[in-house]
Design goal:
The protein is about 60% helix and about 10% strand. It has about 130 residues and is mainly α. The chain has a 3-stranded antiparallel beta sheet with strand order 1-2-3.
Amino acid sequence: QMMIDLSQVGGYKSKYGKKEVVMKLMQFGYDSWGREVTGGKNIVQFTDELKAQDPWHEVPDNFVMAQFLSIRLRALGLAMNHPVTCSDWWGPIALRVLAAEGLPYESWDRAQLERYRPELNMQVHRFG
């Protein structure tokens, strides 16, 4: 539920609000694009299928830029024959930073997400 709350508080909006589509997009964008995520489809087929199921309308810039970085790092790793799962690397760093800030991961809920919500710049898309 935390990932859904994070996407909603973060400003992500789609036509139907299908949680399974949001989860696949987040896993693909921030963590891995293996067959377990894409179902063996290439990136274009995968995103087109998700867009057909639940077209996204608004996405905050910070989500987009973090996804670009994650995708580029994974592409570089694959080019060097070293597949990377971002959460394996960023997860422990995030846990240490949150603890150092006095906001351990376990303390986060939707109310805390709302309290620390940054100002957002939204990318708006309208698909037919």
